Amino acid sequence: MRLNLRHLEAATIIARRGGISAAAPVVNLSQPALTQAIAKLETQLGHALFDRLPTGMVPTAAGALLLPRIERAMALLAEAVRQVRRPGRAGAAPPARLITMAQLRAVIAVERAGSYVLAAAAAGISEPSLHRAAGELEAVLGARLLERDGRTVRATAAARRFVRPARLALAELQAGLDELAAIDAASAGAVTIGAMPLARAGLVPRTVALFCAAHPAARLRILEGPYAELLAGLRAGEIDVLIGALREPLPSRDIAQEILFEDWLTIAAAVRHPLAGRGAIPPAAARAYPWVMAPAGTPLRARWEGWFTAAGLAPPDVAVECSSVVAIRGLLLEGN
User: Fold this and answer.
1) Number of separate domains in the chain
2) What is the value of pTM for the model shown?
3) With b meaning 16 or more CB within 10 Å and e meaning fewer, what string describes 19-40?
4) Which of 64, 77, 195, 281 has a CA positioned 20 to 30 A from the CA of residue 70?
5) Cβ atoms of 26 and 12 closer than 8 Å
6) How confident is the model at residue 261, as a pLDDT?
7) Phi and psi at residue 60, to the nearest 5°
8) pLDDT higher than threshold 60 for residue 91
């Protein structure tokens, strides 16, 4: 993430224009400067992005992987700037010529951490550098992004509008770098999985084990948390895929859901429970005992409530709300 945004943008323009000479006026650099910039970028990446031919420059296999990612990242950065830039500020120049990677990383880190000290530690940047980079970005955009609130730092509404597409832009670039890594080491790269409670008890561990056996060079990270938190990570590009019960209707138009399988709900209790071994349990009998149940608003909770209402009964009070399969098992073993 120490790449030069302007050099990345220049690579996409070279691909569209077919060579250095045609791209140089567009990026407002001399041909020697642009040649040097692309050479530096290729050195940083460890891959040649272009084949130099007498007729021009053509993307290599590595370039074909990375350049579309850069295009999407630049479009997202343009959206981030449009969200906050005041009229008359910074002209109409592309974002890559206005802002730097350091400025992006600074504002994103502080917005997430809520503190310059914590953000500096998380991002590996000194606190003065964070202050300077964030201030420079505010000056370029002409918008206030961060405000002090006692010992914490509060992101403004403008910052929140800016950070979401900016995070997605960095996620696109990181995905491109992972694809380049896979060229050198087959199946390399990184995948972050958001695992919801029921999925992480069986489906996710089995699948990850099979994936790791088939792709030993890959790196996987499994994140747990409430659905809303995991969904926010998915929409921000910090999570690649979220596994768990589907939400109907879709919680957001910018995500897609795919059905992996259909599941059936089962009532679970300790073997010594009075209802154990009685076969099908009518809602009226089940209503007489305390329940451990998923939080309100979850698909499981909605199905459970519907089981009672379909029988003309009000759902019973929930004794314990819990999403942890391990904790639920322990609670069931402790009583009725």
Assistant:
1) 3
2) 0.73
3) bbeebbeebebeeeebbebbee
4) 195
5) no
6) 87
7) -75, 180
8) no
